[in-house]
Amino acid sequence: MAGLKKLSKRPSLRDNIMRNQVTTLLWKGKVETTLARAKNVARTAEKLLTKAINTYTDTVKITKTVTIDGVATKKEVINDGPKKLNARRALMSYLYDVQEQRGAKEAKSDFIERTHNINHPLLEKIFNVYAPKYAERKQELGQGGGYTRIIKAGPRRGDGAEVAIVSLV
Question: Of 12, 53, 108, 132, which is most buried, counting CB atoms within 10 Å of its CB?
Fold first, then answer.
């Protein structure tokens, strides 16, 4: 993304670090890193969330004919509209694909049932959880943005780098 600091890393390494930290932020809700990286992570995450928020309502109903045991039945399916599809592809090209983890005391059959229709859990979380939540917030406050928060956590032991925690609001 343009306008980000170079962080004293070569471009390929810097891009991978940023993609990894933005993915972790959106998946877990917070990430701890240095202050310079935190500012870049927050800026990138806000841009990606804004894409999702502006397009999450763009859906199209389609009627499909499904043949089961020789019997044709019509079924209504909700697909992404062109704007939402474009935003989803843009997010997929930047974010890493994170897979859902099975809970400590969750049975394998329950895990399979919970995740059987989800191919990209992070994107589903962004479009089904974050986008409606932040769109409602945008309506209430009358402003966009401000989806992340940076909290300074003091110097890191060892090298003294300023540490910050980036979290979603």
Answer: 53
Q: How far apart are CA 102 and CA 132, in angstroms?
A: 26
pTM equals 0.88
- State the Cα–Cα distance between residues 169 and 164, nearest whole angstrom: 15
DSSP 159: T
Angle between helices 131-141 and 35-55 (to 10 degrees): 90
* Residue among 127, 159, 147 at smallest CA distance from 54: 127
- The type of residue at 56 is Y
Per CATH, the homologous superfamily of domain 11-168 is Ribosomal protein L17 (3.90.1030.10)
Helix extents (H) in 9-128:
11-28, 35-55, 82-94, 108-115, 121-125
Question: Look-up: residue for tokens 């310079």?
Answer: 36
User: What are the distances in angstroms from CA 109 to CA 102, 114, 116?
Assistant: 10, 9, 10
Identify whether the C-beta of residue 48 lies closer than 8 Å to the C-beta of residue 151: no
3 state SS of 44: helix
Residue 122 in tokens: 């992070």
List the helix and strand counts (H, then E) for the chain.
6, 5
| Domain positions in the chain | 11-168
